[in-house]
Design goal:
Chain A has 191 residues and is of the alpha+beta class. Chain A has helices at 3-10, 17-24, 82-87, 108-117, 119-145, 148-158, 160-165, 168-175, 179-190, and strands at 28-32, 37-39, 47-53, 56-61, 67-73, 78-79, 94-97, 101-107. The A-B interface holds A 60, 62-63, 68, 70-71, 81-83, 86, 92-93, 115, 119, 122-123, 125-126, 129-141, 143-145, 176 and B 60, 62-63, 68, 70-71, 81-83, 86, 92-93, 115, 119, 122-123, 125-126, 129-141, 143-145, 176. Chains A, B: Residues 31-115 form the Cyclic nucleotide-binding domain.
C-alpha cells in the first residue's frame, strides 16, 4: 500500500527502493475509522497526513454552529492545517475521516529532519505545495466569480466520481448549501 | 537592490555571494511604470515575478465587467498565475503595477533549470509555496467565515500599513465592495 506513496514521489523525483525505505521510516501508518477525527479545534496541529486509501475532510464550525467543509483529501493527497502545523499552534479546524481511511502521518520535526536528510524530498514537497497553491489560487477566483450553483456545476463536470463518492450532505457543507437546497439543484439538473 | 532577494533566500537557506551571483543570472530585472500591465487575460503566462520595490496586483474581469482584485504583492513577495505559468497556458488574470515597481522575473524553463542546478533553491521555493499555500488556506476560511466588512476589519487590524498604502478603490476591488460602500464603512469606523 505504501507503494502508492512511492509512486507519488516518483511523479516528481526518482527514488530507489533503498532510499524509499529510509524515507518511509519517518512516517507512521494509521488506520482511521469512518467519522473518527484526526484533529479537533483547539488542539495543536501535530501531523501532516498523506492518504493511502479512503477520504478525509477538513472543516471548521461557524459562529452559527454549522460545519463548513473547506477541503477533501482522497488517495495521493496531503492534508493538514498548514499554518498551525508549521508553527505548532492550536488549530481552528477539524480533520475527519469521511470513509474508513488508511493514512501516513509525519510530525513537523520529523518532516524537517526528512528534508535535511533527503534533499530530493525538498523537490517533492516543493511540487506538492506548488500544485496545491496553484489550485488554491484558482479556487479563490471561483469563490469570487462563481455563484454557489456554478461551483456545484463545475464540481460535477470536473470531478464527477468525487461528487458520486462523497455523501451529499458533505458536498452541501463544502458549497455552503443546506442539504435541501443541494437536493433541489440536483432535481433541477436531472429534469 | 537585488540584495533584498539574497536576504529573502537567506531566510530559508544559506547562500554564498558566488552562488547568489550564479542564481541571479537566471533572472531579468524589469522596471514597471505605475498602471502598466505585466500580464493580460488570454496571454500565455510566461513569468514569475519577485517584487524588489513597489506593488503589483492580480485581478480578473468578471462577467459584469468589474475588476476583481485577488492578490497584492509588495516587496519580498512572488506573483504569477501559478497554474498557467507551470503549464504555459493562457491566463484568466491580469497583473498590474499599483505603484512604479522594480521586479525580478524568471520564465518557467529557466526556473526549472535553476532548480536542477541549485538544489538549495528547491528548499527556498518549497518554503515560498508552503507559506503562500498556508496563507491561502486561511484566506479560504475567511472567505467562508467572515462577512466582507469583517474581512476589511481583519485587513486594517493585521495589515494597517498596507491598507494605508494601496489606493482605496483597489482595497474595495479586493473585498468585492463598491468604493462608495467602503467609504461608508470607513466613516462608520471613524465615528
Amino acid at each position: 500500500m505504501t507503494e502508492l506513496f512511492k509512486n507519488h514521489i516518483e511523479r516528481f523525483t526518482p527514488i530507489t527502493e533503498e532510499e524509499f525505505s529510509d524515507v518511509a521510516a519517518f512516517f507512521q501508518r494509521q488506520a482511521v475509522p469512518k467519522k473518527a477525527n484526526l484533529l479537533n479545534e483547539g488542539e495543536v496541529c501535530k501531523y501532516h497526513y498523506f492518504v493511502l486509501s479512503g477520504c478525509l475532510r477538513k472543516y471548521f464550525v461557524t459562529e452559527k454552529g454549522m460545519e463548513q467543509t473547506t477541503d477533501f483529501a482522497i488517495e495521493n493527497w496531503w492534508m493538514t492545517d498548514l499554518m498551525a502545523y508549521e508553527r505548532r499552534l492550536p488549530t481552528e479546524f477539524y480533520i475527519q475521516a469521511v470513509e474508513p481511511s488508511d493514512v501516513l502521518r509525519i510530525d513537523q520535526a520529523s518532516q524537517e529532519k526528512l528534508l535535511l536528510a533527503f534533499p530530493k524530498m525538498e523537490r517533492y514537497f516543493r511540487f506538492v505545495y506548488q500544485r496545491a497553491y496553484a489550485a488554491s489560487q484558482m479556487r479563490i477566483k471561483y469563490l469570487y466569480d462563481f455563484s454557489k450553483e456554478e461551483i456545484y456545476q463545475h464540481l460535477t463536470s470536473h470531478f464527477p466520481e468525487f461528487v458520486q463518492r462523497v455523501p451529499q450532505q458533505l458536498i452541501a457543507s463544502f458549497l455552503g448549501f443546506t442539504p435541501e437546497y443541494l437536493s433541489e439543484i440536483r432535481k433541477k439538473r436531472r429534469s
